[in-house]
Structure formats: structure tokens, C-alpha cells
From TrEMBL:
It comes from Candidatus Chryseopegocella kryptomonas. GO terms for biological process: siderophore transmembrane transport. Keywords: Cell outer membrane, Membrane, Receptor, Signal, TonB box, Transmembrane, Transmembrane beta strand, Transport. PROSITE patterns: TONB_DEPENDENT_REC_3 (PS52016). Pfam families: CarbopepD_reg_2 (PF13715), Plug (PF07715), TonB_dep_Rec_b-barrel (PF00593). It comes from the Bacteria. This is Iron complex outermembrane recepter protein. Its main location: membrane. GO terms for molecular function: siderophore uptake transmembrane transporter activity. Residues 265-687 form the TonB-dependent receptor-like beta-barrel domain.
């Protein structure tokens, strides 16, 4: 097998050989004539590119002779395109001037189609959250960031895109989370560990909506979220940040369980820069939260490192290591509504200790102007134990690997094909000794029929085995189309299928917790889905708008139900249809003001029971505004989520006052000062002290205040 792969790569190398030339240049500000650092320089319709260094200089080697369009983009400058001609065995030198602008550069997205494209080129509903907004909100976890993305709502750590998920504690997700392109789910429960992601080292978050299994396989049944961390920098810099926060007193006196104020605090220190020829990013973070509820505090350490080494201009390796160590108390649900911040007496003192780490190695080699490959492998170890009697514990090791080839034979076709797989080992008191593995092949072709019309089609074949269950095969096709009515306005449509294999926790859990007994069901089948969408996107420097109408159909949804013996068991019980519409609007005027809103309407229907799906709202509305003047800025966020019309009937038998739920109205506010190397932030979360629940028996965070300071040298 290794010999075949070697011969295949050797053949790719030989195909890549042709007469070439080099391109060098310097980029300067048209007004100040000063060099511009960090400009992305790309030769369009090829995989060749570079970025300017501290002197504003760049170099692109081994360019096939011919005529091209050179594209330059940088934050704070207008995107520039110029015609160039490369002669064989010669070096072309350019001096390029770029014009400053107050407008925002259109974001580049890689998750939707597994390749870099601007937002206006993507035929699927996609949102991007940038690092500046994350920093100013002082969000401590990624799930808090996602609470303000259109079409997304969080139900106590479980993510829901356009109604694809409900709520099931400690089990798998219907939204695939990627961490720098690699799946980031635990091997045992198949869940997301939000607190393990280093928030302050995030460059951006890409949210792709609709079934994505044709490219990403299991768990992408409802969408894909890719958390992309910052790149290593050519310039050395040190960053330090500290924050201190305090919870307000509960709204009702009878909810007050502590005689003193409750605090949360922490910070990080990081280094990013070159050590010799090695790009290096090191981040160490500490966080403590005393909790606004009784029995809810945590203590955690995070360590994140990223290294990048360039063997040549077209051959790069990246290594990532991420570590979390945490001790946290566990609040299952309230004692009753009059004691909304107190757990049941028997749950006081419940605690979990955990240690998690993941690694990622990625090698990328550009073989020619139209051909490159990426090989990556990752490992996620998840270990935890609680202090219950008897003690529950679990250790899981999940390995992911992928080999991807991108090939552009001409200007009309862009091919992506690859192979990926997983291998998972679990040892747990809850699930026993279990294993799973999978392998998949995928291919996608993007065809540019005309200058205005592009469509892409693809197929993925997954083979999955969960321990003693039989092998399960799944073929997922996709078809997308984009028609550009003008440079600013486009129409799109997309169709795809999705699936989700059962998590080990759903098939094999055997435990009793919080008064509930769960038994295994090894006969579970994969969930399946079909997703369809039509939409339109308008983008210009002043305003951008996006509208979509979607239809999703689901089969074999796995839900917890009471069995005849009174115990809970996970079963394939639900067939569902979710229809809806979504609109997003962003205003980016030349003045330092911006405003955005998003509204999603859902009709989530359980066809098996002819009733609305559990834990799905009908209406989701978000809005935020920001204003800056010189070094001062303020911002406000608002979110509305309509009341869940239906919940688990079994929870009504277990949780006191389970029907105590209301629509969600939350306002968060922030202000700050932004100097050259120093930034100060002041945030108020849940400004109006609105009391609500996301999941029955759990009061959501009450009003809190925090101050943070960040310094960079």
C-alpha cells in the first residue's frame, strides 16, 4: 500500500513539471508610500500565492509561463487585481500600490467546499464570526459565541442549527465541529467539549448550514462548524489578558443560596512569532468560576501550541497540541422553582475531574500551479471520572486521518477528492470496552459553465462499524448551483443528504444518574436526512443581505424514551420534517458604525407523532450594533428565542416544575478602549436580568459584570 501511494505521488510530481518563471514584488500604501505587511498575494485560477513580509515584499516561485490575474487583499485596503505575464526562466518584478479603505474585506471561507472561496462564491448558507467581535464580547467559551449566529441556538451546551437537534444530555451531536479542519468530538459520547477550545486564539469561526455529509460524513447531518485558530506570525509578539467578573444577586430573594457575591476570573499569556525557521504559537490559560448556582463551580487549565515549518515555498507542515485539565461541580437540575439555583440535596457535592488533549499534524505540498495535496492526522484523548458511588469513569482515544487532493485541470473545473477514516477505543464503566472505526471516499467537481453560472456536484461513500453492530454503509450525494446576476447579487440552490452513526453512549450506556436509569440498545440504526435550500446573497461595501428558504427531512432520529420496564432507552423513533426561512442583514457604512440582524422561522414537525418536535423554537431573532470613535467603542447584542412548545414527557415525571419555561429575551452590552498595544473591555451579560431556562430545571446565567485588560508587545 505504501509503495502504491509513493508511486502515485511520484506520478503527480512528474505531471507537475513544466517551464516556469518567478514573480517578486513590493506592496506599498498609495498615500504614505510605506510597505504593507501581511498582504495576501494570489495568482487567480491557480494554487500559487504568497504574503508580504515586514518590508512589504513577496516572492512566488515556479509559475508556469503565461498570462494571469494577480489578486492582492489586506484588511484596511481595497482588493487590487492586476494583469501580469510570466516568461519562462525569468523573474518578473513589480511595485504595487494599494489604496486604504474603511470598508470590510469580504471573508474567505474554506469549510463549505473544502477549498478557499470568498463568501459571495459559496452556494450554501454560511456565516463567519471574526476574532475582533469574539475579543470585544469577552466570551469564555465557543458556544457563547455561537449564540448570536443566525439560525443557531444552544440548549445547554448542545448546538442546534435550523432545528436539526433537540436535547439529550451527554450524547452525540447532529452538528459536526471541526478544530482547524479536524473533527473535534469525544470518542465515547460523541459530544463537543467547548471549554477545550482556546477562545482567544481563534482567527474566525465558519458556520455552514444544511446536511454536509457528502464532504464530511457522520455528524454533519445538520451542518458543520469549523473553528480556525490564528496562524503563526512572522513578527514576534507577546499577548497578556486578564479578566475579572461578578454575578449579580438573583432576581428573587428566595433564590439566593450564598451569603457572598460569586466571582469568575482568569487570563492567558501567549507568544506568537518565529523561533529560527519555526513559526511558533504558545498559549497558556487559567480560568476559575465560582458559579451563580450552588454546586456549579469549575477550575481549569488550558494549554495550546501551534508550530509551522516551511520546507520550501510550496511545502509546509503544521503541528498542533491542545490540552485541558478541569475540575467542575455538576448541577443536574434544580430542587424546585422556589429553589431554582439549588440542586437536589442528593446532588450536592457531585463533581467531575477530566483531562483532555488533542493533537493534529498536517502536511501540505503544492506540486504545481493546479495541483496540491494535504495529508493530516489527529488524535483526541478524553478521560474523566466523577465522585459518584460507584464511581463513573471513561477513557476514549479517537484517531482521525485524511488525505485530500485538489486539482484544477482548467479554468472550468475544480476537482477535490480524498479518503478519510477514524479509529476509536473506549474503556468506560458506563459503556464497557468498546471500539468503532470508519473509512470513506469522497469526490467533488466544481464546474464553471459560464462567467455567471457555476454548479458543483459530489459524492461520498462511508463505511462505519460500531463495536458489535454490523457494518453500515452510506452514500451521500450533493448538488449545488450559483448564478451571479451581477458582481453584487447572486442566486443559489443546494441539495444534499446526511447521516449520523449512533454514538457509543447511545448504544451502550448502562447507568443510573439523577434518579434516572438508562439501559443499552445495541440495535440502533444511523440517522438519515435530506436537505434542500434556495437562497440569494447581496454583498457590497455598504450592505450585505442573505435570504434562504430551506426544507429538511429526517429519518430514524435517535431519542431517549421510557421502555416498558420504566427505564430509559435510546431508540430510532422519529421521522421529522423541518421547513423554514432565514434572513440576515449586515450594514457596514464608511462611518465607524455597523449593525446586523438575523431572523429564522422554523416549522419543526414530528411526523411520527404528528406534533411539533421537542426543544425546537419556531422563531429565532438576533441583532447587534457597534459604534466606535477614535479609541472608544460600544456594542450591544440582543437575542430572542420563542418558547419551546414541547419537551420530553419523561422529564416532567423527574424534574419538579418542568413546565416553567418562557420565551428568551437577552441583552448583552459592552464598551471599551482600544489603544495601540492596550485594550480595555467592560461587559454586562444579561443586562436586563431576565430569568429563563434553555433546558428544563436549569436557570440560565443571571446578570453578570466583567472587566478585562489585554496588553500586547
Amino acid at each position: 500500500m505504501k509503495v502504491l501511494i509513493f508511486l502515485f505521488l511520484l506520478s503527480l510530481e512528474s505531471l507537475a513539471q513544466q517551464k516556469t518563471g518567478n514573480l517578486t514584488g513590493k506592496v506599498i500604501d498609495v498615500e504614505t508610500k510605506q510597505p504593507i505587511f501581511g498582504v495576501n498575494v494570489i495568482i487567480e485560477n491557480t494554487f500559487l500565492g504568497s504574503a508580504t513580509d515586514a518590508k512589504g515584499e513577496f516572492k512566488i516561485k515556479n509559475i508556469p509561463a503565461g498570462k494571469y490575474i494577480l489578486k492582492l487583499s489586506a484588511i484596511g485596503y481595497e482588493t487590487t487585481r492586476i494583469e501580469i505575464e510570466i516568461a519562462p526562466s525569468r523573474e518578473t518584478n513589480l511595485l504595487i500600490e494599494m489604496k486604504p479603505t474603511a470598508y470590510t474585506v469580504e471573508p474567505v471561507v474554506i469549510t463549505a467546499t473544502k477549498r478557499e472561496q470568498t463568501l459571495s462564491e459559496i452556494p450554501i448558507s454560511t456565516n463567519v464570526v471574526e476574532s475582533d467581535l469574539i475579543s470585544s464580547r469577552n466570551n469564555l467559551q465557543v458556544d457563547d459565541i455561537l449564540r448570536y449566529v443566525p439560525g443557531v441556538n444552544i440548549i445547554q451546551y448542545q448546538i442546534n442549527i435550523r432545528g436539526s437537534s433537540g436535547y439529550s444530555r451527554g450524547t452525540g451531536t447532529r452538528v459536526l465541529i471541526l478544530f482547524d479542519g479536524m473533527p473535534f468530538l469525544t470518542g465515547d459520547a460523541g459530544e463537543i467539549i467547548w471549554e477545550a477550545i482556546p477562545v482567544w486564539q481563534i482567527d474566525r469561526i465558519e458556520v455552514v448550514k444544511g446536511a454536509g455529509s457528502a464532504l464530511y460524513g457522520s455528524n454533519a447531518i445538520g451542518g458543520v462548524i469549523n473553528v480556525i485558530t490564528k496562524e503563526t506570525s512572522q513578527r514576534k509578539n507577546f499577548r497578556f489578558r486578564t479578566y475579572f467578573g461578578m454575578y449579580d444577586k438573583p432576581y428573587y430573594a428566595q433564590w439566593r443560596w450564598s451569603e457572598r457575591d460569586r466571582f469568575y476570573y482568569g487570563g492567558f499569556a501567549s507568544f506568537n512569532g518565529m523561533i529560527g525557521n519555526l513559526g511558533t504559537l504558545i498559549h497558556i490559560q487559567r480560568g476559575i468560576d465560582e458559579g451563580y448556582k450552588q454546586n456549579q463551580n469549575y477550575h481549569r487549565w488550558n494549554i495550546f501550541t501551534k508550530f509551522k515549518y516551511n520546507f520550501s515555498a510550496y511545502s509546509t507542515i503544521n503541528f498542533l497540541f491542545n490540552y485541558l485539565r478541569q475540575k467542575n461541580e455538576t448541577f443536574f437540575y434544580w430542587k424546585n422553582l422556589r429553589n431554582a439555583l439549588r440542586p437536589r440535596d442528593e446532588d450536592i457535592g457531585a463533581m467531575v475531574s477530566s483531562e483532555r488533549f488533542n493533537t493534529l499534524v498536517q502536511f501540505k505540498k503544492i506540486l504545481s500551479s493546479n495541483l496540491f495535496y494535504i495529508a493530516r492526522a489527529g488524535f483526541f484523548r478524553n478521560k474523566w471520572n466523577d465522585n459518584a458511588t460507584p464511581q463513573n469513569r471513561s477513557t476514549a482515544g479517537l484517531t482521525n486521518y485524511e488525505f485530500q487532493i485538489n486539482y484544477q485541470p482548467n479554468e472550468k473545473h475544480y476537482l477535490i477528492f480524498g479518503i478519510d477514516g477514524t479509529f476509536n477505543l473506549v474503556k468506560s464503566s458506563l459503556f464497557g470496552r468498546r471500539n468503532s472505526h470508519s473509512i470513506a471516499l469522497y469526490i467533488q467537481d466544481e464546474f464553471k459553465a459560464t462567467e455567471k453560472f457555476t454548479f458543483s456536484y459530489g459524492l461520498r461513500n462511508d463505511l462505519y462499524k460500531l463495536d458489535t453492530l454490523k457494518y453500515t454503509g452510506q452514500i451521500n450525494p450533493k448538488l449545488n448551483a450559483l448564478y451571479r446576476l451581477s458582481e453584487m447579487l447572486s442566486l443559489r440552490t443546494s441539495f444534499g443528504t446526511g447521516f449520523r452513526a449512533p454514538a457509543i453512549s447511545e448504544a451502550f450506556t448502562s447507568t443510573t444518574a439523577a434518579g434516572v436509569t438508562v439501559k443499552p440498545n445495541p440495535s440502533l440504526k444511523p440517522e438519515r436526512a435530506i436537505s434542500f435550500e434556495i437562497g440569494s446573497r447581496f454583498i457590497n461595501p455598504i450592505i450585505s443581505a442573505d435570504i434562504a428558504i430551506f426544507w429538511n427531512h429526517y429519518w430514524n432520529l435517535i431519542e431517549p424514551v421510557f421502555d416498558v420496564d420504566g427505564k430509559i432507552i435510546f431508540k430510532n423513533v422519529t421521522e421529522a420534517r423541518i421547513q423554514g426561512a432565514e434572513i440576515g442583514l449586515n450594514l457596514f457604512p464608511a462611518s465607524p458604525v455597523n449593525f446586523s440582524l438575523g431572523y429564522t422561522y422554523l416549522n419543526p414537525w414530528d411526523l411520527s407523532e404528528d406534533a411539533i418536535l421537542k426543544y425546537r423554537p419556531r422563531h429565532i431573532f438576533y441583532a447587534n450594533g457597534n459604534l466606535s470613535y477614535k479609541f472608544f467603542f460600544i456594542g450591544v447584542d440582543f437575542r430572542f428565542i420563542s418558547k419551546y412548545e414541547r419537551i420530553d414527557e419523561l422529564l416532567k415525571l423527574i424534574v419538579p416544575d418542568a413546565e416553567a419555561r418562557v420565551p428568551i429575551y437577552v441583552v448583552d452590552a459592552r464598551a471599551g478602549l482600544n489603544f495601540k498595544n492596550l485594550r480595555l473591555f467592560f461587559n454586562v451579560n444579561n443586562l436586563l436580568q431576565y430569568n429563563y431556562v434553555e433546558i428544563v430545571g436549569n436557570l440560565a446565567p443571571i446578570r453578570s459584570f466583567n472587566v478585562s485588560v489585554e496588553f500586547e508587545i
